[in-house]
Structure formats: C-alpha cells, structure tokens
Amino acid sequence: MSGATDDRAVHLQNHVNDNLLGSGHCDRAAILDPKGAVLACSAGFAVPEGAAIAAAIDDQRRLTTEGLTVDGAVYFAVEAEEGRFCGKRGATGIVVFKSGEFIVIGGHGAGIDHANCRMVVEAMSDHLGACGG
C-alpha cells in the first residue's frame, strides 16, 4: 500500500512541476486533498491554511466577502463560485479549483497573466477530477 501511495505522491508532484509550473503561467502551485492536506507543492510555497481553504472553497458568499488566505496573504475575489476562487492582491494572484478529490492551487506574480494562470489551474483540476489523479 505504501508503494502505491508513494507513486501517487510522485505523480501529483510531477503535475505540479511539469504541468502547473512548467506551463509558465503559474510561479507557485499545490495540490491538496478535500480536507486541505498538501499532497504536492512547489518549492517555497507553503499552504498552512489548507484546512481553511477546503472549508471555504464551496462557500461563495464567504469567498466574495472575506477573500481567501493562501501562504499567509489575503487575496480578494475577482471571481468566486462554489468550488472555485480567483483572487488578486496587487499584482499577484491566486487561483483555486476544487474537483473531485483534489483542490488545485496556482499562483502568479507580476508579469504573468491572471487569465492564463486560471486556464492552467482549471485544466489541471478537470484532468485530476476526470482521472482521479
């Protein structure tokens, strides 16, 4: 069982490295389980608020009024729907999509287009939701 778990962790980390960061449209990324535990994460990106993100991601009203804290920074809603959040904080942004058993987070700094970051995170979320990992 441990080998399968290790393989899944490597697979998810590869998604973070190759598909999210490798796209050039995210400069930090993470994949969480439905309770907010970090399954894979880019170097230097901490998501200690995983449980709070998992609890808030389906609450459109809360996301719209309070925003979302990720890696210690509060992002204010540009778009908030059940299972998805796009937020900005100055020139930086965060995109969070929930699909099936995963929550996919992608972040971008200045110089990276928010719409492109959103597109990559949504595509990864759809992929993980369709294939279960």
Please provide a written account of the structure.
- With 133 residues, the protein is of the alpha+beta class.
- It has a single domain (2-131), classed as Beta-Lactamase (2-Layer Sandwich).
- Helix content is 39%, strand content 32%.
- The protein contains 4 helices and 7 strands; from the N terminus they run αββααβββββα.
- It has a 7-stranded antiparallel beta sheet, with helices on both faces.
- It is globular and about 40 Å long.
- The two termini are 16 Å apart.
Key features?
alpha+beta, 133 residues, 7 strands, seven-stranded antiparallel sheet, 4 helices, 39% helix
Topology record:
Blueprint: H1 2-21, E1 28-32, E2 38-41, H2 50-56, H3 60-66, E3 68-70, E4 73-81, E5 84-89, E6 92-99, E7 102-108, H4 114-131
Antiparallel strand pairs: 1-2, 1-7, 3-4, 4-5, 5-6, 6-7
